[in-house]
Amino acid sequence: MRFANGAATADLGELPWRNSLASNPSGNCAEVAPLPDGGIAVRNSRYPNGPALVYARAELAAFLAGAKNGESDDLARAEMSGLVGSSSRKTR
User: For 55-64, which contacts have Cβ atoms below 8 Å and span 24 or more sequence positions?
Assistant: First the structure.
């Protein structure tokens, strides 16, 4: 069975959701779960019954590799410094 991006979490069935050990008690975290078709579902922990984003394993692997390489660090710094929406962008 193939799942659509933005599928209701309830439509995905019973999944072993998990979040990062670095997540905080205020619930500001994303949770991930493997799907029976080999994909990965991602949901907001504050809205466990809300929609889930669905990715192929290769897509999520590419995103994580980029994150580990620092490719999105500028986005996190902008949020922490209150510059969300600014035109600052990391260049290589």
Answer: 60/32
